[in-house]
Design goal:
Strand content: under 5%
Order of helices and strands: H
Mean pLDDT: 78
Organism: Sorangium atrum
Shape: elongated
Number of helices: 1
Number of strands: 0
Protein name: DUF5132 domain-containing protein
Distance between the termini: 105 Å
Radius of gyration: 37 Å
Low-confidence stretches: none
Largest sheet: none
Structural class: mainly alpha
Length: about 100
């Protein structure tokens, strides 16, 4: 590469850097409103998503509560049942025994 061509490329590169340094604040000022708009949109979307998830959670809790109510309270064993549905080699003491 000739010295003159190398100098020309260096001048072009330095000019581009100088132009970039001069115009960067202008471009930054122009991009800032777009960045702000994007961030605000993300915040609004997050709030909406949280609301949707909360609504789904409440709906699921209602469904579970309704199913439990329809089945009755299953936390207590039925009469005559010791609460174990399995058989293993030891006896369970009965209340009052």
């Amino acid at each position: 590469m000739s010295l003159q061509l190398a100098q020309s490329k260096l001048i072009v590169a330095l000019s581009a850097l100088a132009a970039g340094a001069l115009f960067a604040p202008l471009v930054g000022r122009a991009v800032r409103p777009l960045a702000l708009l994007a961030v605000k949109g993300g915040i609004v979307a997050q709030r909406e998503l949280v609301g949707i998830v909360e609504g789904l959670r409440e709906e699921l809790q209602d469904i579970v509560a309704e199913a439990k109510a329809q089945l009755g309270d299953l936390s207590e064993p039925a009469s005559g049942d010791d609460g174990h549905a399995h058989d293993h080699a030891h006896a369970h003491p009965r209340a009052g025994a």
